[in-house]
Structure formats: structure tokens, C-alpha cells
């Protein structure tokens, strides 16, 4: 298996390398790719230094799989060129997610849609992945009518520059700003750019991608996405109304039995998910599971996950593992 990592010098690319190593993904040849600025730099994988190469050089080598995390415009321009030489691209940017001809995949939910013909596969947005991981089994059982979600998102979701901004501010050092405002000691209700409807693109990703992954356009979703000064993972307060009533102990049971979900919910000993403890882990953690007494058939959840892991790198590598296992590459 010849594998290219496009965006290998970035936050997600770095975690991808870790995840590939941990899961012992079968690699015969590894191509580490970034922008022209990084060509020639060394990046380590499994104790060996690899020289970073440019995208055109990587395409010449016709990799079997390319894992992309280099931003939307890079992906729009280059993913089709990899696909033309027979590479299967799994893309972390938002470039292809809502394209009707591209699959938007969370392996535990819908990897079975994939075929050999899918040459560009989209990895969903980090906030969406963790939410649908918790909601998919509940949707199957009780059918979701409406979701109200508020996010508390880590600075690592914005990339290297945002983590540096927070660290500089914490150290009292003046530096480059990734956000319009200070993030240390702040909460910024502005993730990604604003759309014409007054919502941010991040908020609308939660709406559109959820409907696409759960394959149900009737699910109503409304979202508020907020950046907070954490680095470990994203948190979400999710209020979900179902068509059918549920039993709380059955909800807990269903979530506990879901692959990739860990229930952390024991109020007697203050157990609930937190980003500091989700950091570096692959699972989606769910707690504060309780009935919303203000209207029928409605549930409140607190959902936390490492956005660089299940929200990005781990989900991408899991898609690649599925392709290999099913002989689709
Ligand atoms: N952070 C998250 O939680 C998260 C989650 C899901 C998806 N994503 C998506 O993943 C992508 C990367 O995010 P990140 O957080 O890792 O960002 P990042 O830390 O800023 O890294 C960006 C990477 O892309 C490379 N790159 C930039 N422009 C390029 C170009 N023209 N050609 C080739 N490579 C180029 C950079 O290379 P240089 O070092 O050479 O500049 C770097 O390796 C984005 O599309 C983002 O939306 C991020």
C-alpha cells in the first residue's frame, strides 16, 4: 500500500501519522506532502525521517490512498488530480462534503455505502462526527425530529496558528492572531465564516452534514458554535427531540453498546465527559444523559471528543482501513 499524507506538517496530519502508527496500518511506501514552503523538511514516522515532498511529485508516484488535511482550496484543486491517476482520496476539508456525488462517511454509521468507484471520499466536520456518533443509534430506535446543539470548541480545531495564538496569550507574548479577538479567557461565538443567513459555516455544517450522514432530510437541526480556550477536544450540549418516547436506562444501554462511544455518566462520583480527559483518545464520550422535562420525548446529552482524533485523523484512518479490508483499493 502506497500512502500519501497531504498536509503532513499540520495538526491533523501529525495526528494522522500517530494514528497510522498506533493502528499499524499496512504501509509499504509513505509519501509526506505539504505546501512548497515545507518541501525538504523532515517529518518522523516510526523512528524514520521522511523528506516532505510537493503535491505534483506525490501525484507522479500514483499512491493507492491519499489522506488529505490541507484545507478546502488545496483539496478542490488537487484531489481530482490524484483521483485521475487512480488514487483514492479521503479528504478532511469541507470541499466535497455536500457534493451529491461524494460519500460523507463515519465508518461506524455508513461505510457500507462505499464502493471501488468512490475515488474522493469526504470525512465529515469534527463537531458533526462526534454528535452523529452519539445520535445514530438513538435515531434508529426513536427517530429524531429536531436537534438543538451548542458547541464549545477547542482551538486545535482551527489549526496550528490558533494553538499558537492561545499559547502566546497565556504566556503574555504578542504574536500572530488566528482569531479576530483574544481567545485566552474568552469565548468567541464565531467558528468559520458567516453565511448570509446569519449562521456560521460551522453551524450550517452541523445542520447539513447530520442530515446527509443519517440519510434523513426531515431531521431539523439548529446550532450555535462557540470557540473556547481549550486544546483537548470539542464539547457539545445536545438537546434532541424524538418522534417516539424513550426509556432513560435503555438510552444508556444503547449508547454503552455503541462501538466508538463511551458513556461517562455517574453523578454520585462526579463522572461526566471533559475535553481534558478526552484528549488523545479515539472514542466519543457521552454523559449528563437526562430527560428534558420541558417537552415530550426530548433528551439532553453532553458529548465530548478529541476533534483531531475521531473528529479528523482517526475517522479518516478508519475509512482507509475499511477500504483495505473490503478490497476497495
Ligand atoms: N483541526 C481540526 O480539528 C480539523 C478537524 C477536521 C478537519 N480539519 C481540516 O483539516 C485540514 C487541516 O487542518 P489542520 O488543523 O491540520 O491545519 P494546519 O495545522 O494549519 O495544517 C495545514 C496543513 O496543510 C498544508 N497546506 C496548506 N496549504 C497547502 C498547499 N497549498 N499545498 C499543500 N499543502 C498545504 C500545510 O502545509 P505547510 O506546513 O507547508 O503550510 C499543513 O501541513 C483543514 O481543511 C481543516 O478544515 C481540521
UniProtKB/TrEMBL annotation:
What sequence ranges are listed for the domain Semialdehyde dehydrogenase NAD-binding?
A: 2-117
Pathway stated in the Swiss-Prot or TrEMBL entry: Amino-acid biosynthesis; L-methionine biosynthesis via de novo pathway; L-homoserine from L-aspartate: step 2/3; Amino-acid biosynthesis; L-lysine biosynthesis via DAP pathway; (S)-tetrahydrodipicolinate from L-aspartate: step 2/4; Amino-acid biosynthesis; L-threonine biosynthesis; L-threonine from L-aspartate: step 2/5
Q: Name one GO molecular function term.
A: NAD binding
User: Gene3D superfamilies per the record?
Assistant: Dihydrodipicolinate Reductase, domain 2, NAD(P)-binding Rossmann-like Domain
Kindly list the positions annotated as binding substrate: 153, 227
Set out the biological process GO terms recorded for this chain's protein. Answer: 'de novo' L-methionine biosynthetic process; diaminopimelate biosynthetic process; isoleucine biosynthetic process; lysine biosynthetic process via diaminopimelate; threonine biosynthetic process
Q: What is its EC number?
A: 1.2.1.11
UniProt-annotated catalytic positions: 126 (acyl-thioester intermediate), 234 (proton acceptor)
The UniProt record gives the binding positions of phosphate as 97
* SMART domains cross-referenced by the UniProt entry: Semialdhyde_dh
CDD domains (alphabetical): ASADH_C_bac_euk_like, VcASADH2_like_N
Q: Which UniProt keywords apply?
A: Amino-acid biosynthesis, Diaminopimelate biosynthesis, Lysine biosynthesis, Methionine biosynthesis, NADP, Oxidoreductase, Threonine biosynthesis
Where NADP(+) binds, per the record, is at 9-12, 37-38, 156-157, 307
- Pfam entry (one): Semialdhyde_dh
Q: Which reaction does it catalyse?
A: L-aspartate 4-semialdehyde + phosphate + NADP(+) = 4-phospho-L-aspartate + NADPH + H(+)
Q: Which family does it belong to?
A: Belongs to the aspartate-semialdehyde dehydrogenase family.
The protein's assembly and partners:
Homodimer.
Q: What is the role of this chain?
A: Catalyzes the NADPH-dependent formation of L-aspartate-semialdehyde (L-ASA) by the reductive dephosphorylation of L-aspartyl-4-phosphate.
What's the name of the protein? Aspartate-semialdehyde dehydrogenase
Gene (UniProt) = asd
Amino acid at each position: 500500500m502506497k500512502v500519501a499524507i497531504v498536509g503532513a506538517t499540520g495538526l491533523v496530519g501529525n495526528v494522522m501519522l500517530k494514528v497510522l502508527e498506533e493502528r499499524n496500518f499496512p504501509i509499504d511506501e509513505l509519501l509526506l506532502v505539504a505546501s512548497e514552503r515545507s518541501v525538504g523538511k523532515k517529518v518522523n514516522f516510526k523512528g524514520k525521517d521522511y523528506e516532505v515532498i510537493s503535491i505534483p511529485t506525490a501525484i507522479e508516484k500514483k499512491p493507492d490512498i491519499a489522506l488529505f488535511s490541507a484545507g478546502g482550496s488545496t483539496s478542490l484543486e488537487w484531489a481530482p488530480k490524484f483521483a485521475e491517476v487512480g488514487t483514492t482520496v479521503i479528504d478532511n476539508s469541507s470541499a466535497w462534503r455536500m457534493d451529491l456525488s461524494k460519500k460523507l462517511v463515519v465508518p461506524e454509521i455508513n461505510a457500507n455505502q462505499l464502493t471501488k468507484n468512490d475515488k474522493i471520499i469526504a470525512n465529515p466536520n469534527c463537531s458533526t462526527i462526534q454528535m452523529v456518533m452519539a445520535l445514530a443509534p438513538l435515531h434508529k430506535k426513536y427517530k429524531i425530529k429536531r436537534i438543538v446543539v451548542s458547541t464549545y470548541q477547542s482551538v486545535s480545531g482551527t489549526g496550528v496558528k490558533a494553538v499558537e495564538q492561545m499559547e502566546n496569550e497565556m504566556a503574555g507574548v504578542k504574536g500572530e492572531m488566528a482569531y479576530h479577538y483574544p481567545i485566552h479567557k474568552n469565548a468567541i461565538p464565531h467558528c468559520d465564516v458567516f453565511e448570509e443567513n446569519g449562521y456560521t459555516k460551522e453551524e450550517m455544517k452541523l445542520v447539513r452534514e447530520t442530515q446527509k450522514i443519517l440519510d434523513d432530510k426531515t431531521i431539523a437541526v439548529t446550532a450555535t458554535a462557540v470557540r473556547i480556550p481549550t486544546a483537548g477536544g470539542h464539547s457539545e450540549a445536545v438537546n434532541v427531540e424524538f418522534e417516539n418516547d424513550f426509556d432513560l436506562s435503555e438510552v444508556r444501554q444503547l449508547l454503552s453498546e455503541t462501538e466508538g462511544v463511551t458513556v461517562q455518566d455517574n453523578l454520585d462520583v462526579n463522572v461526566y465527559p471533559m475535553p481534558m480527559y478526552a484528549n488523545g483518545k479515539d472514542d466519543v464520550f457521552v454523559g449528563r444523559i437526562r430527560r428534558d422535562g420541558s417537552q415530550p420525548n426530548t433528551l439532553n446529552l453532553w458529548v465530548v471528543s478529541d476533534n483531531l482524533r475521531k473528529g479528523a485523523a482517526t475517522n479518516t484512518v478508519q475509512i482507509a482501513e475499511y477500504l483495505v479490508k473490503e478490497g476497495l483499493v
